[in-house]
Design a protein that fits this description.
globular; sulfotransferase activity; Rossmann fold; transferase; alpha/beta; Sulfotransferase_dom; five-stranded parallel β-sheet
């Protein structure tokens, strides 16, 4: 039997969210009954979720965001990314966001006839750097992160990054990322997106592609306003590239791995990740 308290908390929060959204007039109801935001950690998933949760987006799709982990003890799925399987459907009318899982985990979800999915990838070297600073300094302590933070704060940066590489591989992040490489060729409901494109100079065009795929008919002017409101400078008070290691929004740029990798870290990364950079065209 599922624990009662987490389920009750999730039901209450969902009810409150729906109550608030009822005040928003839905101009267009998406033909999709579910949208699935799939990814791995440290791919700006909370930023993307924030955009998907914006009432201006809801207005043009009628879909609210749903985070299944809010209904679990500790609000955290303790399974590795390659162990996560789902035997129950998500609520109809919801954008499940984010789903940290491999492609097989996504395939296990019971889905309605009308649905869409998208997967956000990121240079795995930048994933490593972002995860290292987040785990060491800024991320809320959930699961075993308290122990990990203690370990990282005893280590040099080089040893901490090597530790983080091993940890991310153990929790299945790199295998999960690899599993999605050709998902769009297998399943036409899946759209592939790159973190680097979503934060880049052509961000609006890539979000337009995402929303067209998901049947979210937000006008260009509204989308522009949403992206500006949720932009790095607006939410962090800093320009992209200005680093605050204590902040969840640490730096807001791609390619930061070049400031932290050395020959030892690069060699171990290749040992663990293999041809993952080539698979995702990050070489």
């Amino acid at each position: 039997m599922e624990p009662i308290v987490p389920r009750l908390r999730l039901w209450t929060e969902t009810w409150l969210k729906k109550t608030q959204l009822r005040r928003v007039a839905v101009v267009y109801q998406s033909l999709n009954e579910n949208v699935f935001h799939c990814t791995v950690q440290k791919t700006a998933s909370q930023w993307v979720r924030g955009i998907l949760s914006d009432p201006r987006i809801y207005r043009y799709c009628g879909l609210y965001t749903h985070r299944y982990e809010d209904g679990l003890p500790g609000r955290n799925d303790e399974r590795t990314l390659i162990e996560r399987r789902f035997d129950k459907p998500f609520p109809v009318g919801a954008i499940a966001s984010p789903l940290y899982c491999d492609y097989e985990g996504f395939c296990s979800i019971p889905k309605p006839l009308h649905h869409k999915a998208f997967f956000v990838t990121r240079d795995p070297r930048d994933v490593l750097i972002s995860w290292y600073f987040s785990a060491k300094i800024s991320h809320p302590l959930i699961g075993d992160l308290g122990r990990v933070r203690q370990d990282l704060n005893r280590l040099s940066e080089e040893d901490g990054l090597l530790y983080s590489l091993e940890y991310l591989n153990e929790v299945g992040l790199f295998p999960a990322q690899r599993s999605w490489a050709d998902a769009d060729a297998k399943d036409e409901t899946v759209l592939m997106l790159r973190y680097e494109d979503l934060i880049g100079s052509e961000s609006e065009a890539h979000f337009k592609r995402l929303f067209q795929h998901c049947d979210v008919r937000v006008p260009d002017e509204e989308l522009r306003g949403v992206l500006q409101c949720h932009g790095f400078e607006q939410t962090s008070g800093r320009r992209p590239g200005q680093e605050d290691q204590s902040a969840h929004l640490r730096k807001g740029v791609a390619g930061d791995w070049q400031n932290h990798f050395n020959s030892k870290i690069s060699a171990r990364f290749e040992d663990i990740a293999g041809d993952l950079l080539g698979v995702w065209n990050y070489r």
